[in-house]
């Protein structure tokens, strides 16, 4: 059985097509938990008929106060997970019919190789679409120039390539999360770090969702191959430094929480990375080269060397 966690806030425009896409999955071995984050539109009103129609499969929960972010909302839902696997769902996307089937198949392959007690994570490619679901790119990994093989700790400390709305984790990984971390950049990034240090990460090359882009997206897909996009990023110095600093804080909290469980080489890497801000510029650059702490793609690497 798979527990699917969906967060929603003011989703009246998109949430019903997403629910329908889950109901139309070829693998129906799932339960859907929808947590509304104090919507002020008709979101709850639209969802309630589905809860009445599918009481054994769809559950609606309502926060008493707004959590402030989808990330916090997702972390607060993890105690609901009781079954073997957990998937994460944004209210504004649309799942392709075989998403669950393809993802759970890859998860079972990982389990056969590594055991059920090993923290495991599977993620997939995405098709990027506009707000009307017209496909803009059939591969977000290609359009964003992401490295699907970048699943080691040195890769994931500096760049997350796991998109939460494609992600499945097993119960062993869920149980390792514990209380919501204060400095996790995103829930998917934190779980990817857990899998990199203590388990395995698997990937499905096919796009399993239509990833809808619209003005209200909290985190959206960008064309990382675009010269104008990269020039704009380089110009936003303060934002670039803030993003970098967030990864240092995340590494520090991760190391503090899992210190006793970490392999010596991973512990060293986390400690070195979180202390980068206290080194001089030349030493920071030397550390990036020594520990291979580079993002994927020339433009991103140049940005790192500039802002580190």
Automatic annotation (TrEMBL):
Ranges for domain Glycosyltransferase 2-like: 4-114
Sorted UniProt keywords: Transferase
Transmembrane segments: none
Highest taxon in the source lineage: Bacteria
Keyword GTP-binding recorded: no
Classification via InterPro entries: Glyco_trans_2-like, Nucleotide-diphossugar_trans
Keyword Transferase: yes
Molecular function terms from GO: hexosyltransferase activity
Name by which UniProt lists this protein: Glycosyltransferase family 2 protein
Organism, scientific name: [Clostridium] leptum
């Amino acid at each position: 059985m798979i527990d699917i966690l969906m967060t929603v806030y003011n989703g009246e425009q998109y949430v019903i097509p997403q629910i329908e896409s889950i109901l139309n999955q070829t693998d129906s071995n799932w339960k859907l938990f929808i947590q509304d984050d104090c919507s002020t539109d008709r979101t709850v009103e639209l969802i309630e008929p589905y809860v009445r129609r599918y009481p054994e499969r769809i559950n609606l929960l309502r926060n008493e106060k707004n959590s402030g972010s989808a990330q916090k909302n997702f972390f607060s839902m993890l105690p609901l997970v009781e079954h073997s696997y957990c998937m994460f769902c944004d209210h504004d996307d649309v799942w392709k019919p075989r998403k669950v089937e393809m993802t759970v198949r890859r998860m079972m392959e990982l389990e056969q190789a590594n055991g059920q007690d090993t923290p495991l994570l599977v993620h997939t490619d995405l098709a990027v679409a506009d707000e009307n679901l017209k496909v803009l790119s059939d591969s977000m990994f290609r359009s964003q120039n992401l490295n699907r093989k970048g699943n080691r700790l040195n890769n994931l400390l500096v760049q997350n390539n796991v998109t939460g709305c494609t992600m499945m984790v097993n119960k062993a990984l869920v149980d390792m999360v514990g209380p919501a971390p204060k400095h996790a950049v995103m829930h998917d990034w934190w779980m990817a770090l857990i899998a990199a240090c203590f388990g395995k990460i698997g990937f499905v090359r096919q796009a399993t969702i239509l990833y809808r882009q619209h003005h209200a997206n909290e985190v959206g897909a960008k064309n990382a191959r675009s010269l104008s996009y990269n020039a704009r990023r380089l110009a936003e110095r303060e934002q670039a430094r803030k993003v970098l600093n967030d990864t240092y804080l995340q590494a520090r909290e991760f190391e503090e929480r899992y210190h006793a469980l970490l392999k010596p080489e991973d512990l060293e890497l986390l400690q070195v990375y979180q202390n980068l801000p206290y080194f001089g510029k030349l030493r920071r650059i030397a550390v990036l080269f020594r520990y291979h702490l580079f993002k994927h793609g020339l433009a991103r690497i140049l940005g790192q060397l500039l802002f580190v």
